[in-house]
Amino acid sequence: MDIIRAVEAEQLKDNAENFRVGDTVKVHFKIIEGKNERIQIYEGLVIAINNTGINRTVTVRKISYGVGVERIFPIHSPKIQLIEVTRRGKVRRAKLYYIRDRVGKAAKVKELIRKKTVTKA
Fold it and tell me: What is the domain partition of the chain in residue ranges?
């Protein structure tokens, strides 16, 4: 068992923990088309984060031409280059599956506004 955990620990990414459910993220992932390799950006709302460790996945939902599209990304995959948070969301649930049934403004998540901490010198 320790050998498996050691191999998994090598493959874990450090920057995968800086977002939560309800955040709007840009996922930069690598696409290979024949000999060409390019990075495509998928921007949407994080509606679920599943599992832990190397098996951790994130479900991102976006509206494309009026149709809801969801994609599941394995966070620690070598094809994922960067997960960038564009907007923090204020939610009270761990899974936002109810967003699938909402349309228009009802499908939005309020933005989380954090106060800046002031340090005294």
Answer: 3-102
Per-residue b/e over 22-31, b at no fewer than 16 CB within 10 Å? bbbbebbbee
d(CA 31, CA 18): 24
Question: pLDDT, tens digit, for every residue of 48-68?
Answer: 999 888 889 999 999 999 899
Which letter does DSSP use for residue 89 in this model? B
Give the pLDDT mean for 13-42: 89
Query: What's the whole-model pTM score?
Result: 0.83
Question: Which listed CATH number (2.30.30.790, 3.30.930.20, 3.40.50.300, 2.60.120.1440) goes with 3-102?
Answer: 2.30.30.790
Q: Is 41 helix (H, G, I), strand (E, B) or coil?
A: strand
Cβ-Cβ contacts under 8 Å for 53 (sequence gap 6 or more): 8, 12
